[in-house]
Amino acid sequence: MLERSFFDIFVAVWFALALVVFFLLSFITAPYGRYTRRGWGPALRDRWGWLVMEAPPAILFVVFFAAGRNRASVVSLVFLALWELHYIYRAFVFPLGMRGREEHMPLAVIAMAIAFNAGNCYINGRYLFEFAGAYGVHWLHDVRFLAGLVMFLTGYIIHIRADAALRALRTPGANGYSIPRRGLYQWISCPNYFGEIVEWTGWAVATWSVPGVAFAVWTIANLAPRALAHHRWYRTHFDEYPAGRKALVPGVL
């Protein structure tokens, strides 16, 4: 199949691009949020930026599901539900809950995020719902599927609870940053990023697929450098920042 040949090449290139992105982000912090700065061209308000870049994968994944041969499988429905759980939160719930002074997000960053989301959506959607073959009932009892499901949901809960802890630091209309201390913030600077990495690692395990691993690798490539940047930022701006707190992984990194 012509598309399958293209798909296999695309996945290989996608892995290589993740390594390039990891290298670049280790030296250049993406200019949004606390790192917003001039020189990156036109920008949108943060809330609109999150919507524009996170809504497309929620929609596209449904399209791939509807067009695929595996849509009647219960396991495929679970994968669809997990994906939508994450992206509906990121596109709609998260931006609506933002507090404090609204920053702006450069259109260049939004465009790169759309490309990232589209690539991951394509390789995962087409693989799971078209190329992987039918998922039988035995998958519901497969240890990989069950373990990955637990990991994904655990990471999702960590992620949204960490976001809630950050929101609680600001009353509506308040600006500025404070030291977060609730939950996993006692041990790491970025439990929200840690949660996302656990989510998509769980996805890779549950799907037991190369595209799933690619998504997990891309998540680490994007978020690990930013977590380290956040950690440095906190230490620079707060003399009383907890000395034993790590950046991303409790007790490790």
Q: Report the count of strand segments.
A: 2
Number of domains: 1
The helix-and-strand class reads: mainly alpha
Helix content bin:
55-70%
- DSSP strand content: under 5%
Based on CA atoms alone, the radius of gyration comes out at 19 Å
> In this structure, how is the largest beta sheet organized?
2 strands, antiparallel
Shape: globular
Low-pLDDT ranges: none
Order of helices and strands: HEHHEHHHH
What is the averaged pLDDT score?
Answer: 93
Ordered list of secondary-structure elements with their pairings:
Blueprint: H1 2-25, E1 43-45, H2 46-67, H3 74-96, E2 104-106, H4 107-131, H5 143-168, H6 191-207, H7 210-237
Antiparallel strand pairs: 1-2
Helix pairs in contact: 1-7, 2-3, 2-4, 4-7, 5-6, 6-7
Q: Can you summarize this structure?
A:
The chain has 253 residues and is mainly α. The chain has seven helices and two strands; from the N terminus they run αβααβαααα. The protein has one domain.
Tell me what you see in this structure:
The chain is mainly alpha-helical and 253 residues long. 65% of the residues lie in helices and 2% in strands. The chain is built from 7 helices and 2 strands, in the order αβααβαααα. A two-stranded antiparallel sheet has the order 1-2. α2 (46-67) runs antiparallel to α3 (74-96) and α6 (191-207) packs antiparallel against α7 (210-237). The radius of gyration is 19 Å and the shape is globular. The N and C termini lie far apart (44 Å).
